[in-house]
Amino acid sequence: MIGIPESFPPFRARFPWWGPDLQTVRNHVLHDYAELKAWPAEAFFFPMESGDRLSASFHRPANDRKLPTVLLIHGFTGCADSAYVLATARHLLESGFPVMRLNLRGAGPTRSACQEMYHAGRSEDVRRVLGDIPRRLTVNGLAAVGFSLGGSVLMKYLGEEGTVTPLDAAISISAPIDLGLATQRINAARNIVYHRWLVSNTKREWLGGPSILDNQQIEAVRRSKTIYTLDDRVVAPLNGFADADDYYAQSSAAQFLDGIKIPTMLIHAANDPWIPVEMYHAVDWSTNDHLMPVITPSGGHVGFHGRGGRWHDRGIVHFLEGLNAEACMPMAAD
After folding, report:
1. Which of 51, 205, 236, 293 is the right S-S partner for 241, CB 3.0 to 4.6 Å?
2. Which H, E and C letters describe 249-276, residue by residue?
3. pLDDT digits (tens, 9 = 90+) for 267-320
4. Are the C-beta atoms of residues 247 and 239 closer than 8 Å to each other?
5. Considering the domain 20-178+253-325, what is its CATH architecture?
6. Helices (H), strands (E): how many in the chain?
């Protein structure tokens, strides 16, 4: 059943962040949650088969409650230092969860260590990272939270792995589980400012360090004016897809949802200006009891700025602690 579970507190937008756009842009104009100095970071690096190297930062909570480590996976044109990642990390640490913030391939601090870049179908990177996380960090369990594109990659990975995954639970926030529909929406006239911003950031990522791009592909990046063109001329051919449509068809997470075999919550706002809620309504959720779709009427894209803080952060803790109470994860009681 799609909706907000009765056990969850209702989402109520906090003044003045009303409407989908203000909810969405708040992450980029105010960084009042992004303070982690109280939890010093331990650096980790994850080598990929191609020679690229991903990086992550691990934080321990002040009080060891024997709770699982939570891996945070950022979204499109983001990194482990994105405001929404830092905010969720802080909330989890304050709640007693160890946290690892991951930079996907070529994102943020990993840009200089990677010739290739992350994309929505690159679930093998998540697989590699999860397999390489030191056992000492996961003795109390392991969960993952993916934001936007990071959530889509996480859902794809879970569907491919089934029961083989080392994860005990997972959560996605505002994930574009149908990439074709998401691209159509971002191309809409009402999203022109968002679209230009994403294209600019994507170009900066591709051109900001070492690269496997040839001169023709570099020029394609520079000349591209849409996400679709970048996907069609650069991402698809570099990663073995026929074109952008083939990339979207093979990489969209919706087709992998039936394969997920661990407790998984998918949070999404019906008024998300980037990701149309129709892609969530198109899923037959009744076929997989492991999935828990949580659709709110409002909240924007990775927004959910409400009374009492960021609603989805409270939802993550509520979900994971609920699994602890039901003994569905190897968590210790408080």
Report:
1. 236
2. HHHCHHHHHHHCCCCEEEEEECCCCCCC
3. 999 999 999 999 999 999 999 999 999 999 999 999 999 888 899 999 999 999
4. yes
5. 3-Layer(aba) Sandwich (3.40)
6. 12, 10
Of 19, 1, 2, 16, which Cα lies nearest the Cα of 272? 19
Residue 5 has which token pair? 């579970």
Q: Which amino acid is at 322?
A: G
Token pair 């030191």 is found at 134
Q: Could you tell me the residue ranges of all domains in the chain? A: 20-178+253-325, 186-251
CB 53 within 8 A of CB 46: yes
Q: How far apart are CA 212 and CA 207, in angstroms?
A: 11
Cβ–Cβ under 8 Å, residues 142 and 69: yes
> 10 Å Cβ neighbour count for 289?
8
Q: Can you list the residues of the chain whose pLDDT is less than 50?
A: 1, 327-334
Element (H, E) at 301: none
168, 130 in Cβ contact below 8 A?
no
Average pLDDT, whole number, for the chain? 92
N residues, the chain? 334
CA distance 91 to 30: 16
- Say how far residue 118 (Cα) sits from the centre of its chain: 12
Give Dmax over CA atoms of the chain in angstroms.
58
